[in-house]
Structure formats: C-alpha cells, structure tokens
Design a protein that fits this description.
The protein is an alpha/beta fold. Helices cover 52% and strands 15% of the residues. The strands form two sheets. Strands 2-1-3-6-7-8 form a six-stranded parallel beta sheet, with helices on both faces. It has a two-stranded antiparallel ribbon with strand order 4-5. It is globular.
C-alpha cells in the first residue's frame, strides 16, 4: 500500500523523462516505469540534443539520464535541466560506479546515481525516492564516498574554517535531520522517525540550506560529509 501523503499516486503519477542512447536499455527502463501506476513516462531521448529538446517541450518531475551519450555527456543535461526546470530531479544511470562522476553529478544537483545492471526492477523505486525528497544511491557507493571524504581530510584553510563556523550554527535537530537526509530518508519518513510533521522537517531543511548556503540536498550532504557531521 502506497501512503496517500506520498508523491506518486495512481491519479497523479510522477512524470519521468528518460534519456539514454542504448535503445535496449531504454525499452527495459520504459517497461518498468509503465508497469508501475505511480510513475508515468512522458518522453524519451537518445542524445544530448534530443534531451535538450525534450526538457524544453515536456513537463516532468524526474529525469533519468545516462552519462555517456553519443553526442556528449549526461552532465550537460543536468546543468541545462536545472536552469530550465529547477524543481525537477535528476538521477544518473550508468554502467559503472565512478566516485568522481558521482560527486560531479551531485554538485550539479543530481539526487541519485544508479548502476544499470544492479537496478533491474527498481527504476520506479528510484524515481519515487527522489520525487519524495530522498536520494537514490547504493549503500556501497555511499560508504565509498564517505571513506573518500575521510581520506581527503586536511588542515583547514581560512575558507574551510569559515564553513565550519557556519556548520556550528546548525542546531542539534538540524544536524539530526541532515544525517537522515544523507541516509536517503524522505521528509515524511524523517517526520515519522522524529515524531514531527513533514512541514516541520521541510522547515528544518530550508534552514539548513540557508545556513550552509547550498541549494540542493545533495550539496548539503556533501558539505556535511566534508565537515565530518556523519
């Protein structure tokens, strides 16, 4: 049973734009999305050029985009999408896990990174996760990224010290919410676990954005990781 307060109801499914130059993979993902009544595939594209056109022409909530397209990279479409449809979410779909690519995707505003062969049967789940305020990333990849942040720790520069002072301004509850965001929980799930409303959770998240001077959940999580909040 899908809770009625979650985004992605049968009468109003999450709209998806799919961009992948592999025709077979597009068919596989399209079939999975169309088989789930909570997701609606509104358009497909096979290149950066077609992707740009689709972004302009179609209303959608989540873009599933391959990194390696015939005429460019999926990164270009994430950046373009955020300028045209800033409320939409982007999820990278790739044949491999590359830490540098994941970080770059998150810096551009993506909220998910899926490895194709390990996500058969789960594309609607990933779409619903990000549409409801969560992040879609494998636990294995999340752990690798956090370990990488630990290894990258170095004596703080003046700018980092300034960032740390901003981080210290977060309340204990805001830090708790940020940790749960980093774990992929949606606002509704965080509210349930902390016994507060989703509205209160979103207020905390907005305050976190303002204090850390970031614009997306992924940027907030990356900032917090570099500052050792979790």
């Amino acid at each position: 049973m899908w809770p009625d307060f979650m985004t992605g109801q049968v009468e109003k499914p999450v709209r998806v734009l799919l961009v992948d130059d592999d025709a077979h993979m597009r068919r596989v993902i399209a079939q999975e999305l169309m088989a789930d009544q909570r997701t609606l595939l509104v358009a497909q594209a096979a290149s950066v050029r077609e992707g740009r056109k689709a972004i302009k022409q179609h209303e959608f909530d989540v873009m599933l985009v391959d990194l390696n397209l015939g005429d460019g990279e999926g990164f270009q479409l994430i950046d373009y999408m955020k300028s045209i449809r800033p409320a939409a979410e982007a999820v990278i779909i790739s044949i491999m896990e590359n830490d540098d690519q994941v970080l770059h995707a998150f810096e551009l505003g993506a909220t998910g990174y899926l490895v194709k062969n390990s996500w058969f049967g789960s594309y609607p789940q990933a779409v619903l996760q990000v549409a409801n305020g969560g992040a879609s990333i494998t636990p294995h990849l999340a752990r690798r990224l956090l370990q990488r942040f630990d290894r990258a720790a170095a004596p703080a520069t003046h700018e980092q010290q300034q960032d740390e002072r901003e981080t210290e301004r977060l309340s204990q509850r805001e830090k708790e919410v940020l940790r749960m965001v980093a774990s992929g929980y949606t606002s509704a799930e965080i509210g349930t676990r902390l016994l507060i409303s989703s509205l209160t959770v979103n207020t905390h998240i907005k305050n976190i954005y303002r204090k850390l001077q970031v614009r997306t959940r992924a940027q907030a999580v990356r900032f917090a990781s570099l500052r050792g909040l979790f």
